Amino acid sequence: MSDDSTPKKATVGTEEDGPELVRFDRVTKRFGTHTVLDSLEMTVYSGKHVTLIGPSGSGKTTILRLLMTLLKPDEGTIKVGDAYLTHEEKNGKLVPAGEKHCREVRKNIGMVFQQFNLFPNMKVLRNITEAPVHVLGLDKGAAEERARGLLDLVGLTQHIDKYPSQLSGGQQQRVAIARALAMRPQVLLLDEVTSALDPELVAGVLDVLRDIAHTTDITMLIVTHEMNFARDISDCVMMFDQGRVIEFGTPEKIFSEPENDRTREFLSAVL
Amino acid sequence: MNNWSWEYVRDILPDLLQGLWITVQATLYGSLVAFALGLVWALLLRSPSRWVTWPVSIVVEFVRNTPLLVQLFFLFFVLPGWGLTFPPLATGVIGLGLHYSTYTAEVYRAGIDGVPEGQWEAATALSLPRRRTWTSVILPQAFRRVVPALGNYVIAMFKDTPMLAAITVAEMLFRANSIGATTFDYMEPITVVGVLFVVISYPTSLALRALERRLVR
After folding, report:
1. Chain B residue closest to A189 (CA)?
2. What residues contact residue A255 under an 8 Å CB cut-off, 6+ apart?
3. DSSP B101-159
4. Has residue A5 got a pLDDT over 70?
5. A106, A119, A183: residue with CB nearest B119
6. Distance between CA A130 and CA A109 in Å, rounded?
7. Which residues in chain B have Cβ-Cβ distances shorter than 8 Å to A186?
8. Residue B121 CB contacts under 8 Å (≥ 6 apart), including other chains
9. For B73-83, how does the pLDDT look when each residue is reduced to its tens digit (9 = 90+)?
10. What CA–CA distance (Å, rounded) separates B82 from A201?
11. A144-147 long-range CB contacts below 8 Å, 24 or more apart?
12. Regarding beta strands A83-84 and A75-80, do their DSSP bridges make them parallel or antiparallel, or are they unpaired?
């Protein structure tokens, strides 16, 4: 049975898991005439780990970039917790969100990029403390203590005084993970975080992420091509095609007995 | 034709060296004005509002496309008529700084554009305020890229300082010219001025290249 014509409403978790954390309500995003997201309806409850899979151009990364406010939706609304990310309520009316409101809601979200995007002009320590000090208002000592704890978690304590250019790609990505976590976000977005790494460095980064997934209650939205990793840490896998969720479910179900032909095709190509 | 006289050179050298000091001052202060004002232009030109970018780009293009000498004459001979009078050296510094700021603006623009998009995205992802993004992420990276190009403009400005002679700044060429006018012997003073320019600008350009290699690493 495969019915591609009706978009699915994808819900991950229930109210028993905690509050609803991320909600896409009929979100559409177009680039020119190309529709990358087609009226997406998606709800993720607190603490869930969701992996987005699908062919390139199917809209997975767009979802993360919309949540990070790096893109604006053409239609629909996005909510993070109780607040609209894309809009704000003024006199009972929903109006497009201003920069200040955006920044406030965005604080709850952290992102790790494919290309790490560490600040090359800052040492590892300051890469991690910069935002806690200047966004959360932590004093320097507290921010550094937090940074040291996170560097310990990602196994890079000895590199604290180095510049990013002195580190390997895998080490840089682990610093980037620490930098995102230093903001104590409720939601962590992982955008193909191992795709730019040399093969021998991938495992180290994935181990760190597994550790975080299993020991914290942070909510994760993950775009990855590492299917084994997705199987290990996901509560839910969503298959995207042409801007729509065409199938979603537990990793066991999606990877072992997918219902949709497109999912089967995709998985046989990547597994 | 006269013969070269070292004695004559020795007599006029102190005066020319004083002129060199004026030349160096004009260049240094002019550079500071050009560096600061160029950054202001570059940032204003990135404003989302057309009401800012249009007037600024008109001013910048106008200044860049008129000769420095015309601008110096305007500042020195026209502005006093409107009640704005500056001493010759200050006028020269303003003129050089303003003129070269239109070039440094372009240098900054390229430097800022050269900072990868991912840096802006990382700053957004961390919710860094806009101001902090500029001062701690974007500009420090842009400055590294622009140092060599800015240095080249300092050297170019240095070699343009003789134009200040036309507005009575007592820099090297002005003095050489005055000496020649009294002795009727221009060969030594003008030659020494040329040599002094080389003595300063060539080592400076070598130092710049060394700095550039260091920064690129």
Report:
1. B125
2. A227, A231, A237, A267, A271
3. HHHHHHHHHHHHHTS-HHHHHHHHHTT--HHHIIIIIIHHHHHHHHHHHHHHHHHHHHH
4. no
5. A119
6. 16
7. none
8. A68, A70, A113, A117
9. 999 999 999 99
10. 69
11. A146/A182, A147/A178, A147/A182
12. antiparallel
B125 and A135: CB-CB below 8 Å? no
CA A206 – CA A200 distance, rounded (Å): 11
Q: Determine the pLDDT at residue A29.
A: 95
What pairs with residue A244 in β-bridges?
A: A241
User: H or E element: which one contains B193?
Assistant: helix B187-216
The secondary structure of residue A178, as a DSSP letter, is: H
> Within a 10 A sphere around the Cβ of A84, how many other Cβ atoms?
21
pLDDT tens for residues A196-213?
Answer: 999 999 999 999 999 999
Q: How far is CA B107 from CA B25, B33, B34, B112, in A?
A: 23, 15, 11, 9
CA distance A190 to A69: 15
Contact call for residues A49 and A32 (beta carbons, < 8 A) = no
- ipTM here: 0.91
Asked if A40 and A76 count as a contact pair (C-beta separation under 8 A), the reply is: yes
Helices (H), chain A: 60-67, 99-106, 124-134, 140-153, 169-181, 199-215, 227-233, 251-256, 261-270
Among residues B15, B5, B22, B48, the alpha carbon closest in space to that of B162 is found at B22
Contact A185/A111 with Cβ under 8 angstroms?
Answer: no
Cα-based angle B39, B45, B46 (whole degrees, multiple of 5): 95
Give the nearest chain B residue to A178 (CA atoms).
Answer: B126
- A90's enclosing H/E stretch is strand A87-90
Which residues on chain A are in Cβ contact (under 8 Å) with B129? 103, 134-135
* Nearest chain A Cα distance for residue B108, angstroms: 17
CA distances from A76 to A4, A106, A121 (A): 21, 18, 38
Which residue of chain B comes nearest to A71, CA vs CA? B121
pLDDT tens-digit series, residues A89-124? 888 888 888 888 888 889 999 999 999 999 999 999
Please give the class, per CATH, of domain B6-216: mainly alpha
Q: A231 and A255 in contact (C-beta within 8 Å)? A: yes
**CA B130, CA B136: separation in Å to the nearest integer?**
10
Residues pairing with B116 in the sheet: none
**Surface-to-core class of residue B69, CB atoms within 10 Å of its CB (0-12 exposed, 13-18 middle, 19+ buried):** middle
State whether B128 and A120 contact (CB < 8 Å): no
List residues in chain B touching A: CB distance below 8 A. 116, 118-119, 121-122, 124-130, 132, 136-137, 140-141, 144
pLDDT at A1: 43
